[in-house]
Amino acid sequence: MIKSNIKLFVLSFLLLISLRPLQSAEIVDPIKVDWSFKGLTGTFDRASLQRGFQVYKEVCASCHSMQYLSYRNLGEPGGPEFSEQEVKAIAASFEIEDGPDSQGEMFTRPGKPSDKFKSPYPNVQAATAANGGAYPPDMSVLVKARKGGANYIYSVLVGYEDPPPGVTLDDGVYYNKYMAGNKIKMPNNLMDGLVEYADGTESTVDQMAKDVTTFLAWAAEPELEERHKTGVKVIIYLVLLTILVYLSMKKIWSRIDSEV
Amino acid sequence: MSEHEYVPKSKAAKWFNDRLPLLTLGAHLTDYPTPKNLNYWWTFGGILTFCLITQIVTGIVLAMHYVAHADLAFASVEHIMRDVNYGWLIRYIHSNGASMFFLAVYIHIFRSLFYGSYKSPREVIWIIGLMIYLLMMAAAFMGYVLPWGQMSFWGATVITNLFSAIPLVGDSITTWLWGAYSVDNPTLNRFFSLHYLIPFLILGLVVLHIWALHVPGNNNPVGIDIKKPSKDTVPFHPYITIKDAFALLVFMIIFAGFVFFTPNVLGHSDNYIPANPLVTPAHIVPEWYLLPFYAILRSVPDKLGGVILMFSAIFILFVLPWLDTSKVRSAVFRPIYRQFFWILVIDVLMLGYVGAMPAEGIYLVLARVGTIYYFLHFIVVMPVVGYLEKTDPIPMSISEPVLIGGAEPSLARKVNDKV
């Protein structure tokens, strides 16, 4: 009797869940990419992270900040893993405002690995004003801040199209298949051959979109590789301990005339 | 409480125990006679204790690094995730721990509903449990505000605005709660303070909950009163401790699965966008464990009515022991009530589902039907079914399934094995 009830209950719940697609028919699902960092043992593609950083630095960084990252993160395990010299060189290529000095003056100096990523604008208002009234969001946790995560970011980057007939766009507004509402204020910044990859990889739009999305996924979850590795160990440990405790329990309960 | 007076072995222990009988308490907890037929639904008390302690320990560490200020809170959470050693692990345990806590508490509550654990003489245990549940919801809601993301801010705005529905003084009360004229820095600050306080109130109530439990002893799947200690009971240690440990470990595997492999699946992606009072998210949804109540709230077109109904949905549970007229505790012997129990489970799940959807069209209809049924279950079904239902014969004891009335071999076997 209880069994059949549970069946009924599962069935009606599935029915309920299946109503869902009726609701969200207009939204285009993002493209599913087989990312290397998906799955229980997923890790980042080191070369892709380094290329992605290059795309970020040369393309995105002119408008988007990444204020929660430090240059040192670029050399840490589980990330792009640039060498110590490379990280120092990258940091030093930025002029960072520091101070006040002993005279009370602010001054600029070359960046150090401990500095946070330099933001393109001094504040949100300046960024908004410079971009036609749309704030280019900080990209530190962008992948976690969007439904669909990395797939969504990648889809938007490659989702620019000519608007369908009947759709008129204002100046500075672009049509994007995957953006909610299909209207985006960020122009299509990627075109084939835009950056010259240091490792010789051909910089197609698709390649750049994948690389920079991988970089953003790492930026949002720099702990991902360690988390996956630790997780596998923790689960194995817990399963073994569970088996031992289960056997102990059976043994202890065998002393009395009762099942456990 | 224990039948046999405990005498410590050493002289020093006796000296101490005469002054503070902690050893007597320890002996009582060890020997505590527990029904031997408790199934795995009974392991959630131990699991919940584990959840509470995990939340307190991880929470204390998080509070060492968190900054409760509207301009700094979001950044301090990112600081925890990126710069604090294993900060990501501690925070993910804490955030997923809240969900696991509620998962366990819902199973615990529905177990009580199925086996009639709220009935005489356990009404006080039930009421203290509900107070714990209320405090849990308050703590979880305030905790969700602390990262100061979009859902934090707008969730806080929606929930605190409910109080403005109170006639005459509503607006003043809301302003008083906020400490400002909208959800702002003072609100965040007091929520942090209260979020730190409430778990310790819960801890105190947990002690009372267990104390009240140890007076009549555990209910059991058969739902009959048993002699303690007797052939029907086992000492708590090692029988129940090892069983609780096993169940806890299985629970921890699921918990670890969330923490290490899908740590954000139970949260809302909008909460990784810093709070912005000028931009309202498309859909404001609370955490999953509050969704059934959110659905009830939104099913009423009138704001005050919705608030009253939502709070009634919880407070009606306080009088449940007196709404249930059945003399039989366990639903195992209540063929009609058992059906209604599962309908209630489906009803609450459905309310949770529609709570996550926009309040329009079919979802609004489902929410209204679900809300009406929820109240009907407690106000009509429970008293009436308890009155009219012909219950199955009940065994005299757990080990000796001698049946009142005509013996029914199939039932006897069922009771003897596992219920």
Name given to the CATH homologous superfamily of the domain at 24-284 in chain B: Cytochrome Bc1 Complex, Chain C
Percent helix of chain B? 55-70%
Poorly predicted segments of chain A? 21-25
First-last Cα distance of chain B: 29 Å
Largest beta sheet of chain A, briefly?
A: 2 strands, antiparallel
Count of β-strands of chain B: 2
Main sheet makeup of chain B: 2 strands, antiparallel
Any idea what the CATH architecture of the domain at 24-69 and 116-249 in chain A is?
Orthogonal Bundle
SSE run of chain B: HHEHHHHHHHEHHHHHHH
Note the quaternary state here: heterodimer
Alpha-carbon distance between the termini of chain A? 22 Å
Overall form of chain A: extended
Q: So what's the CATH class of the domain at 24-69 and 116-249 in chain A? A: Mainly Alpha
CATH architecture verdict of the domain at 24-284 in chain B: Up-down Bundle
Write the layout of secondary structure elements.
The complex is a heterodimer of chains A (260) and B (419).
Chain A: H1 2-18, H2 20-23, H3 46-58, H4 84-92, E1 95-98, E2 107-110, H5 124-130, H6 149-158, E3 174-175, E4 183-184, H7 205-220, H8 224-253
Chain B: H1 11-19, H2 22-31, E1 33-35, H3 44-65, H4 73-82, H5 87-115, H6 123-145, H7 150-161, H8 170-178, H9 185-214, E2 233-235, H10 236-261, H11 291-298, H12 303-315, H13 320-323, H14 335-355, H15 361-388, H16 409-416
Antiparallel strand pairs in B: 1-2
Helix pairs in contact in B: 3-5, 3-9, 3-10, 4-5, 5-6, 5-10, 6-7, 6-9, 11-12, 11-14, 14-15
